[in-house]
Amino acid sequence: MSVASLLGFGRFALRRLVEMVFTLLVASFAVFGAMYLAPGSPASFLLSGRSASPQALAAINARYHLDDPFALRYVRWLGDVVQGDFGRSLTYRTDVSRLLADRLPTTLMLVGMALVVVVVVGLLLGRVAAVRGGAVDSAVLVATTLAIGTPSFVAAVLLQGLFAVQLGWFPSSGAGDGFWDMVFHLTLPAVALALYLIGLLARVTRTAMLEALDSEHVTVARSRGVPERLVIRRHVLRNSLGTLLTTGGLIVSTLLVCTVLVETAFSIGGIGQLLELSTSTKDFPTVQAVSLLIVGIFMAVNLLVDLVLPLVDPRITLGTRSAAA
């Protein structure tokens, strides 16, 4: 890259980072405020339905700063978050940072396994459908339609009932201990998490490759006698990378969101199940921390896609995708 290109890339990256920080600030305000708009209060959960004297209730509100003005609570919380302190869980009576540190690796491993399944199977099905056509294309379209029409929670229940309960091939719950035991336990959840996105990626890959196959440079390459496998690899797949990479950002974000359903179905102790349990018990600090973490990962993935996209597809200039979005 030339000096001018490097400077342009640096300015673009800096601008996107500033936008990311601003968006995270807005998201933090929305996340913090949304919990206080929900019915109920942390004090009622801490009392477990028991009646309390005004003095006891005042002590609880003072300990957790529940009587402070909303703006003051938000500024205090945001200042702690910037320093890595997400507060203390009302449910688990421990630091939220420790809860995230204990559960995040499980979720990341589940998302990573599901992402591998999505990429391998989705790209393969899309490539086969585009290149083979005919009956193979029709079969892939039917299969992907079924996959897209099956929500992650439904897929989890079906896979759990068949392969865990009926056949007994895989565990029905838990995350396992140790790397390979975790891989074994998370196989069914990863497939359930990946099923919808396999159909999505396969269809996007098929469409992108069909468009590339009809392009002029592919016709020229074939007329010059270039072997078909090289045409597919050098001209078709390469020109489809921009679309596939953009879809990849959406895939990772969807995987993070859908972990809530899948982890709950398989009783996996990740941040998805933690978010579900914390929401039901009005554990404000934990819900806010997990929600902000998911938003942060989502934005980081999109930033990475924006930065890598011009490198894999020279036809796209810096900022084009962001402006289009």
UniProtKB/TrEMBL annotation:
Subcellular location: Cell membrane
Family assignment from sequence similarity: Belongs to the binding-protein-dependent transport system permease family.
Protein name per Swiss-Prot or TrEMBL: ABC transporter permease
Record-annotated ABC transmembrane type-1 domain positions: 104-305
Transport listed as a keyword: yes
Organism: Streptomyces finlayi
UniProt keyword terms in alphabetical order: Cell membrane, Membrane, Transmembrane, Transmembrane helix, Transport
Record membrane topology: Multi-pass membrane protein
Superkingdom of this protein's organism: Bacteria
